[in-house]
Design goal:
The protein contains 22 helices and ten strands. A six-stranded mixed beta sheet has the order 6-7-8-3-9-10, with helices on both faces. It has a four-stranded antiparallel beta sheet with strand order 2-1-4-5, with helices on both faces. With 592 residues, it is an alpha/beta fold. The protein has two domains: 211 residues, 3-Layer(aba) Sandwich (Rossmann fold), CATH 3.40.50; 257 residues, no CATH class.
């Protein structure tokens, strides 16, 4: 019976016209507990996805669907993998990097950008640098029309605090950012998860339209409707990591009926198949039956046809089947930097809440402390010293927000970096540069209010400049340190707690609460490696180092009588150190 969804769809089998993916003898083991044996997740899997085909990977939860897709996309960094994966009879790794795309199960997008902006930035970063901006813009408009997003192209994506587009539309945007380069091979993980039947059908229609253009599509799907099931060309049915069936999707029900497992009348084929393989007591029989079946013999013939004739051949010998498929045209670093900077600025303008929150927080702190310490009488120097310490501690308290913000950015970076959008250095440096004006403006206003209200530094303008520089470097150093926790910690609460511990240690070691001579000897080393000590020393020198009485007061507090410039240089070194350390963490923790 002809499939109405597949009429006129060419199944390209010529390597020069598309990409054919094959895998054979694929096994995957992961470590168990401390003393337990390694767990065998995937068992001797094999399969073929030809150009222009839509291949569905189905199975109950825990059957290994997503694990298989991640292995095919070279996104598994732990455990032991054996077997072969090939694209056009070549080693798959480098081919997929250049000509493949991967749509994740989660919609990891910036909620403050519109649909068109999101797709446009993906096009600017991924399409060939030789293409003009006008050509890229035209390509994005055509993609929006293909995705059925014309009506919402100027609407925000939306998120936790921003009202945006629907879940189905968001899923189509997630597909769009990956297929903007017209990849020859697309892997999609649970693209209909969480969507209603109408939205799920629209998403599957997009994948179907891509196969009509010759793209090879593999998608994992949990429980498709009968209409969606009819769209599949091939079906790989898994049960606990074993192949229960591989072959034409329309023949699957008939295959199991011949084994004695009749489908109840009127049942959705997908529901019937999932119920069948969910019964683990039937697995041994189903595995054995498939090994002896005609579909398995056809699968072996296909694997032999599309797998490497010489498995030792190096993948660098691959030549692209057609320039149409090439989706790894690396853009220049400076171009990446400017595009990412533009995106960061647009996001700051569209979502001013974070900037406004930061501004109000610092201004309130400055006004409150100014009013509280403005009329000091008894023990004025001691109280003013505590005021200066609190002035610096405010930077550590307000730096907590950097953890959450960077976690969001790091999640998007992971997706985009794996897709080859840009380099880690362009991402991180553009982010730092774009935040400098805001940080400097807020810090200057905060410092100026405190400086003139409390008559600090005898209100000498040059001392205002030096105090602002110390405060600004303190803020940037705190931000750099807290962003590291935003990268290393995968949970928001863990990141906040960890940042809180380190920020508290820095604030306690600034020298105002416990001066150096009173610190236990076994902890005195921590005084010298606390950057807040240099911040506190710098502002204390600006306030007290001009008079003999002031210098005596500094000695009483155990403050080192240095040049203010020395404190600034040390703070700058700490700031650069934390930024470099954060960059290294991005390279290490965000790659896999």
């Amino acid at each position: 019976m002809a499939d109405p969804y597949r009429e006129g769809v060419p199944i390209l089998q010529n390597d020069d016209k598309g990409f054919n993916l094959s895998f054979t003898r694929l096994n995957y083991h992961v470590k168990g507990g401390c003393k337990s044996q390694p767990k065998h997740i995937l068992h001797n899997l094999a399969g073929v996805a030809r150009a222009g085909e839509l291949v569905a990977i189905m199975g109950p939860s825990g059957s290994g669907k997503t694990t298989l897709l991640n292995i095919l996309a070279n996104r598994v960094s732990t455990g032991k993998i054996t077997g072969q994966v090939a694209i056009n009879r070549q080693n798959a790794k480098k081919v997929f990097q250049r000509h493949g795309a991967y749509v994740t199960q989660d919609d990891i997008l910036y909620g403050d950008l519109t649909v068109r902006e999101t797709l446009m930035y993906a096009a600017l970063l991924r399409l060939p640098f030789s293409m003009s901006h006008k050509e890229k813009s035209k390509a994005v408009d055509e993609l929006i029309e293909m995705l059925g997003l014309t009506a919402v192209k100027n609407s925000r994506i939306g998120g936790l605090y921003i009202r945006g587009i629907s879940g189905g539309e968001k899923r189509r945007v997630s597909i769009g950012v990956e297929v903007v380069t017209s990849p020859g091979l697309l892997l999609a993980d649970e693209v209909t998860s969480g969507l209603d039947s109408h939205a799920a059908a629209k998403v599957m229609d997009i994948l179907l339209n891509m196969t009509k253009r010759g793209t090879t599509v593999l998608t994992t799907i949990h429980q498709p409707s009968s209409q969606i099931y009819q769209r599949f060309d091939q079906l790989l049915l898994l049960g606990k990591g074993n192949t229960m069936y591989f072959g034409a999707a329309e023949h699957a029900v008939h295959y199991f009926a011949n084994l004695g497992f009749q489908s109840p009348p009127g049942w959705n084929p997908a529901d019937y198949l999932l119920d069948l393989v969910a019964d683990e007591t039937k697995h041994p029989q189903l595995i054995e039956d498939f090994q002896r079946s005609d579909p398995n013999q056809r699968l072996k013939s296909l694997v032999q046809e599309y797998h490497p004739r010489d498995s030792k051949r190096d993948s660098t010998e691959i030549s692209a089947p057609s320039s149409f498929w090439c989706c790894s045209n690396k853009t220049p670093w400076l171009y990446q930097f400017f595009v990412l900077s533009h995106r960061n600025i647009v996001r700051m303008i569209k979502n001013p809440f974070n900037s406004l929150q930061m501004l109000v927080s610092y201004l309130f702190s400055a006004v409150f402390m100014g009013a509280l310490f403005a009329d000091l009488k008894q023990n004025a120097d001691n109280q003013l010293t505590l005021c200066l310490a609190f002035m610096l501690d405010v930077f550590g308290i307000n730096a907590f927000f950097a953890v959450g913000l960077f976690m969001q950015d790091a999640a998007v970076y992971r997706r985009e970096h794996r897709g080859g959008y840009y380099s880690a250095s362009a991402f991180y440096l553009s982010r730092i540069i774009c935040l400098i004006p805001l940080n400097a403006l807020v810090c200057f206003g905060y410092t100026a209010i405190m400086f003139y209200w409390l008559n600090l530094g005898n209100q000498e303008p040059n001392k205002l400049g030096l105090m602002f520089l110390i405060n600004y470097l303190t803020l940037e150093t705190f931000l750099g340190m807290n962003e590291i926790f935003g990268v290393v910690c995968t949970r928001f609460d863990t990141g906040i707690v960890t940042a809180g511990v380190f920020n508290t240690v820095q604030m306690l070691l600034n020298g105002a609460f416990v001066n150096y001579p009173n610190i236990p000897q076994y902890l005195q080393w921590s005084y010298w490696v606390a950057f807040m000590m240099y911040s506190m020393t710098g502002v204390m020198l600006l306030q007290y180092n001009d008079t003999p009485a002031g210098q005596e007061y500094l000695k009483l507090y155990g403050i080192q009588v240095w040049e203010v410039d020395t404190c600034i240089y040390v703070l700058l070194a700490w700031c650069v150190f934390f930024r470099l350390l954060c960059y290294i963490c991005i390279r290490i923790f965000c790659r896999k």
